[in-house]
Amino acid sequence: MSETSKLLEKWLKAEEFIIVGKSIDRVDAIDKVTGKAKFMEDYTIPGMLYAKIVMSNEAHAKIRMINLEHALKIPGVVRIITAKDIPGENQAGYALPDQPLLAEGKVRYHGEPIAIIVAENPEAAVIAASELNIEYDPLPTLLDPLESMNRRDILIHEETGSNIAFTTKVRRGDVSKGFQKSDVIVENEYKTQHQEHLYLETEGALAIPEIGGTYTVMSCAQYPHLAQAITARILGLPTNKIRIIQPYIGGGFGGKDDTGPLVAAQAALASHLTGKPVLLIYSREESFRIHCKREQSIIRYKSGATANGILTAIDVKIIMDAGAYANRGPFILWRATMHASGPYYVENAKVDGYCVYTNKVYQGSFRGFGNPDIQFAVESQMDEIAKELGLDPLDVRLKNILKPGMTTMTGQLLDESVGVGKALMMLAEKADWRKKRKMYENEKGRYRKGIGLACGWHGISTSRGVPDWSNAIVKVSKDGGVEVYTGITEIGQGTPTTAHVQIVSEILGIPLEYITIHFGTTDAPDTGATHASRGASIGAIGVLIAAAKVRERLATLASEILQCNPEELKFENGKIYSKNDPEKSLKWKDLVNEAFNRGVELSSTGYFYLPKGKFDHEIGQGYAYPAYSYIINIAEVEVDMETGIVKVTRMWPAIASGRIINPKAVEGQIEGAIAQGIGLALMEKVEFDNKGAIINPNLTDYIVPTAMDMPKVEKPIFVEDLFRYGPFGAKGVGEMALIPTPAAIANAVAHAIGKRIFELPLTPEKVYFKIMEGRICQK
Amino acid sequence: MKIIRFQLNGKWVEVEIEENMTLLDLLRRKLHITSVKRGCERGECGVCTVLLDDKPVYSCLTPALKAEGRSVITVEYLSKNGKLHPIQEAFIKSGAVQCGFCTPAFILTTYALLKENKNPSEEDIKRFFDGIICRCTGYVKIIEAVKIASELCNQS
User: Fold this and answer.
1) Which of the 8 DSSP states describes residue B1?
2) Closest in B44, B98, B141 to A494, CB measured
């Protein structure tokens, strides 16, 4: 067993904790409540220029000409940058190399960046952007993915020969035999919509030329090393010339994972070509129109079950609207495909996924990453099966729920860390599910209550065998101060400012004020992205290992000084002492000082490469994820039968995501995810006109939940089903509670009104007409 | 250009402004008070909230000229000599802070609410907050923070 694995296992098996598992206050909260916290736009550099993006006003068109002459005459304009000015490669695609940083030759969506105006003040940049003369030769547009996937005469990316960007599949058993064995078959089509991240701080970047031909780019990206790689590629420089740092970031939710690096590259390009520091901040409308959205999905789902509710087969077809560029689309589709069974055992499964180009803003990462769409279908199906069979939806789920020792739909054995069944039973009891379910059945009158249940699962780390690792540096200074360098970012979730400091404090036994985490920076080794709920799980393993290595060295030294066995030493509250003889003790600072005097190295890297298996795409079977986090939400709603208005009145969450390092922070993630899930379920939808332009790119017309829309959220149930490679067994939390929220609400609404709506969001209009459906209008 | 005088966080200031300037630009660009955030710039998100004579206003929609002779309060006003205001304490303790972009606006709005209503009910709090968006917390812990803050303020 390697040293790394030994250290991971040692801390996984720890039985008592000083600070892990405690709801400490976030260490960044003090900056944020006093107004000292600085965000991108709060930084100014003398001589700084301001950049602005010029967007396409066509969804699909050849760019005939860009005439700079007029715009360049606006006082204060310094430079106008187009694709031909890019010194490196004009390529910012993620899954596929299909996306330019600035449109070249043609545009593929309304809002696509074409040029960057650089000016001495923001006002001049705004005027110049409106004065820039771009002439287009319009091409036919494809806005409907179902049409687009069948057209070959109109191609959004000519070189591909098809508008299908990517396909996925899972095959298990024999679905036709499975359906033959079933007593009931339920088949439906589900639709989900584009959702806007609406981080309150829009995207931005500040690029500063530094000594030695390097650039420091302050970026809002969720993966500094990706921002570095894309910026370097655009500038035609090696990555070592680009340094990425982050200020506080006003929310990310995945959107800045995809867009942050592109904005960093745009600002750096402007800085490179002008030799000046350049600040680029997207306006709200630009943010809406330019950056990726949660995908629109169409899901056809057929399930078969026996009379007592055991699943026999599923046949699923997922079509996702990728928009103009693949971006993360293939990976989003992968995730939806791999999770298409829900957290249930099914012997026969066939899943096909299609990621289809259209001339709309491209799809991208958004909390849940394809999974809320598919769980909406899965969990609606479970309720429909229960309804057909006259069973309680809870029982249908309990009969099929995954347990340790079972295999997933892709044939992967789950040998540990499957707490979903326990969490489901505990939650049903806490919410008094059976009683409420019966009680609301007979609701009469204008306001009707309903209660709905939905489970979700989410593979941690990246899909399939895609490599994933963790990385960090810990260094201790002579006075005992500890600095940690990580690429994991702080985007509101507080991973570096809660979980990371707690891990270091726990292992070194020192107070929080001794520790500073330098987060979101390429000064740290490549830590991977702050996405896929991995910041406090996979992303924190490196922090744990680096700190644990320093501790081992200090323990050896302390045992020499104190004349005792290193195993009996405790590190606590800035002291190192023998648990057998507490008189034998040293102060942390004195021990560190001794280490410097005696030649003990006190800086360390922490690296871990996550063991994974292989997924065989040809046969549609194999290894999908190292482990899954599980989530269950129960939603209670009240429906106004006369207006169709749905009010979510109460939510009960339960989560099985391994060790909970900071319960308060986890509650915050769950509550915030529920709010975004309520938005997705009831009100949020990016609307397009028939030319592919977003018609609600502002907060007046795009509605998100306010305090008035929030239900009472009960304290979550935590089932700590430890994961062997997680830090202290942690799996991941960030995305979880959003995943089943739309399904839980839809199930509760179906319970209240007695009919199901298969398309999100459940707007008053849709609910009202569903209630009225089949009613005879009397004159 | 025009010179206006107003009280900023309890101190009189005199500043030359362009007549079409918003209070947001005056505070951020002229006076470098960056705790006031620029959000949607159309009075929808509320992150630019400041207190004008103790009432919350969207500074993005308020002409700077309106500050003439009046009091403008930003979150910097609340902590005195390094000691946090009970509202700030309550926001930290209850976990009401995530990304922090809307936090100054919520804290100032809480300050205004507790001035006019010492014991707000949950419904009062939700209604008072209807003009500010938080995309991180789901408001649950912000509402908790206001309840804690009202207790702390009533004690002191």
Assistant:
1) -
2) B98
